[in-house]
From TrEMBL:
PANTHER family given in the database record: RNA POLYMERASE SIGMA-E FACTOR, SIGMA FACTOR F FLAGELLAR
Organism: Myxacorys almedinensis A
Pfam family, one: Sigma70_r2
Entry keywords, A to Z: DNA-binding, Sigma factor, Transcription, Transcription regulation
Recorded superkingdom: Bacteria
One GO biological process term: DNA-templated transcription initiation
SUPFAM superfamilies: Sigma2 domain of RNA polymerase sigma factors, Sigma3 and sigma4 domains of RNA polymerase sigma factors
Domain RNA polymerase sigma-70: 57-70
Protein name: Sigma-70 family RNA polymerase sigma factor
GO MF annotation list: DNA binding; sigma factor activity
Keyword Transcription among UniProt keywords: yes
């Protein structure tokens, strides 16, 4: 796309976002979706070869993520809207695939590299007493960093999400999603319908900043650094908000269950 066209698109998007924040309407929102539909097409195209879902379904789901980004974007933060929106679009598609497609097709080469990575990580941890970074894993496998990150993401979406899967951060340690669910009988995801409802009810009770951090880190798979950049805060603040948010969610869900 020519640079002039891209600049015009960004300028028009920014103006529509200003209009939407002043006076939200479905008309302006739909205009923003149309202007930025290319972001959804790009993300849907990335996933179409890794799942059994149709391209049209992925487009529809991606648009839901785009709409959420439109509703939550803050012009005052100074971020580019495209960079802000992509995690929402990608996250919405990922969660749709987790719900609809327990088996995501992974190329054989990627499967082989994933197995190599498992052994490499074990050896690295035994020698260095820490987990290797993505860059270190990619270099050991002799592949580009971006390809390793795609392999890792595809592998994560291949399996059903487990309540025993660790969630957390490098600095503050980890918890498991099961820690957020008081009833221990649900040890295999998906969450039971009543647990999903309690989680949703608990999320909306969190203060805005804490809820945003939790959503970025756990729902949209951003790193703490990426989350900090999106929200214009420090990584330390993100880490504290993660710890605070998980604790509050657990307490809120317990209260909801007992009431």
């Amino acid at each position: 796309m020519p640079k002039l066209v891209v600049d015009d698109l960004r300028s028009e998007t920014l103006q529509r976002l200003r209009d939407y924040q002043v006076s939200p309407s479905s008309e302006i929102r739909n205009q923003l979706v149309e202007l930025n539909f290319g972001l959804v097409r790009k993300e849907a195209h990335h996933w179409i070869h890794q799942c059994a879902e149709s391209y049209e379904d992925l487009l529809q789901v991606g648009c839901i993520g785009l709409i959420r980004a439109i509703e939550r974007f803050d012009i005052a933060k100074g971020h580019a809207f495209s960079s802000f929106a992509i995690p929402y679009i990608r996250g919405e598609i990922q969660h749709y695939l987790r719900d609809k497609s327990p088996s995501v097709r992974i190329p054989r080469r990627w499967q082989a590299l994933q197995r190599q990575a498992v052994w490499m990580v074990r050896e690295f941890q035994a020698e260095q007493h820490r987990h290797p970074s993505d860059l270190e894993i990619a270099e050991a496998l002799e592949i580009p960093l971006g390809e390793w990150q795609e392999i890792k993401l595809a592998s994560q979406n291949r399996s059903l999400l487990s309540l025993d899967a660790p969630i957390g951060d490098e600095n503050e340690g980890t918890a498991s999603l099961g820690d957020l669910v008081p009833d221990s009988q649900y040890r295999s995801f998906q969450l039971a319908q009543e647990d999903q409802l309690r989680l949703q009810q608990a999320l909306v009770q969190l203060e805005l900043r804490t809820r945003q951090v939790i959503e970025f880190v756990f729902l949209y798979d951003l790193t703490q650094k990426e989350t900090a950049e999106r929200l214009g805060i420090s990584a330390v603040t993100v880490s504290r908000q993660v710890k605070k948010g998980l604790s509050l969610l657990h307490n809120l869900m317990v209260v909801t269950e007992e009431s």
